[in-house]
Amino acid sequence: MHLEIQTHRKNPFGILRSSFRKDGKVLHKSFGRVTGLPLDQLKILQAAFRGQAVPVDSPQALRTSHSREFGACAALLALANDLGLPRILGKPDDANTRCLLAMVIGKLVYSGSKLSLVNLFKDTCLWELCGVTQRGERPDVDTCCYQPLDDLLKRQSAIQKKLARRHLQNGALVLYDITSIYLEGEYAESEIVAFGHPKADGKRGCPQVVIGLICNAEGCPVGIEVFAGNTKDETTVLEKIAQIHDDFGIEEIIFVGDRGMITQANYDKVKDIRGLSTITALTHPQILKLIDGKHIEPELFDETKIVEIIDPEDQQRRLCLCRNPQSALKEANTRQALLEQTRKALDKIALGSTKKSARAEQVGERVGKVLNRYQMGKFVDWQLTDIEVVKGKPAKSMEWTFDEAAIERESLIDGCYIVASDVSKERLDSEQTVAAYKSLTLVEQAFRNLKTVQIDLRPIFHNRDDRIKAHVFLCMLSYYLQWHMKQRLEALFAADGTHENRRWTFQGVLERLKSIRKSRAAMADVEFDHIDTPDAEQSAILRHLGVRLPTK
Description:
Elements: E1 2-6, E2 13-22, E3 25-34, H1 39-49, E4 63-69, H2 71-83, H3 85-89, H4 95-110, H5 114-118, H6 126-129, H7 141-167, E5 172-182, E6 208-216, E7 221-228, H8 237-247, E8 253-256, H9 264-270, E9 276-281, H10 284-292, E10 307-310, E11 318-323, H11 325-353, H12 360-374, E12 380-388, E13 394-402, H13 404-411, E14 416-421, H14 430-438, H15 441-453, H16 465-488, H17 490-494, H18 506-514, E15 517-523, E16 526-531, H19 536-545
Helix pairs in contact: 2-4, 2-18, 4-7, 4-16, 7-16, 11-12
């Protein structure tokens, strides 16, 4: 008996036959068909019927080579298809769309630059899975990365509108915050790269851009924009509100921004906009003003319950008073440490001013630098007096003291914060209002993943403004995919241990999927592609994601 392979149809199949002679003719008898197997596997069966197969216990039974990462890229591609991401990006069969999809997935799985992703072509199945290249082909970085990236920027507005329609509903919470990203290189002709105050980067002395991110109430990103590096937080708010209303078509929103975004000046400008409500927090000076005006007492701030009052200057605005004991301890310790550093620096200036001739401007400049560095000027009283030193040369004596009353007054509101909102109590009660403001941590979490934890948006090496903007948008789309992946893995993370017994992280999940490899295998004289069978843990991850890996 032998296996005859038929390849004249679209899908190959095998026919089990035996051959015999009768009256000098070779005749065949068929016993059945073998269908549903790829050609490579049919050839292995054919070799076995011929007696050419190697025994399974032989070390030469199966040989593998050219192993490449398969599982993570295949799983994320299946998830992207399930989410309809190719259609959001453009036409699913368009070459640029396939390249963009590869870069979105590649940024999440491998981080790194566009060129580094291209140079992984021998180690990953990503480009092949996305239909960009055939196996073993190196993608062209211009055709497969930079041209699609330029096309992405042109599509950004349309893509964000699709995301907004999917994830923002009328009357929903909209979370907004900004951060800064530093850049490397020369940007003499850039309109957006500028020196500014770094926001949580800790990277000084580098030019930067500012990024504004819009998320829904659950932290799912729907829009991002790149501003000049010296842009102030509050100057972006009106533009974002207009974008949500006009471009996204959302008539009623509850706009949530921190105290640096919705300043009193901004609130006065937007409070009468139809369909707009806001949630923010008051600054420390605003809280102290309420205390000084006898509108509130420090004792009203409670650690266990939220006390609500009406803003004395705006009867439509509710003020929710809260206190966090952990923040109170942190603020007290931070202030004490800064006061101690200020004391040492000012004592040094005071001692030095009496030992050598010094003009008032020089001493004042040194004092100003200290107060600006430690931000403790509001607690310091200082003055200069003329003195005479050796040989009658005039000098300035600097004397200073801490304003203990001001320090005590500030300590009264350690850990205290007030959430301000013009949303009606019927729509959001006190606890819901405070929870809505706290949900801004979801935007901060998005920034952490974009900047350091997973996607490595920074530093940016592009030297053209349009490429910088497209790169930032591409990274947001990668986080969009990551956000959905984490949502589907919630049950896996919830069932995990804690501390040293913790098993799973997002990166750990990716590494487990990465260990599913696709290799070139050989058995007897037949070569074929072999994909590792997922183990129990990998199968569980795929079930949580709701995807299946392709078999070839």
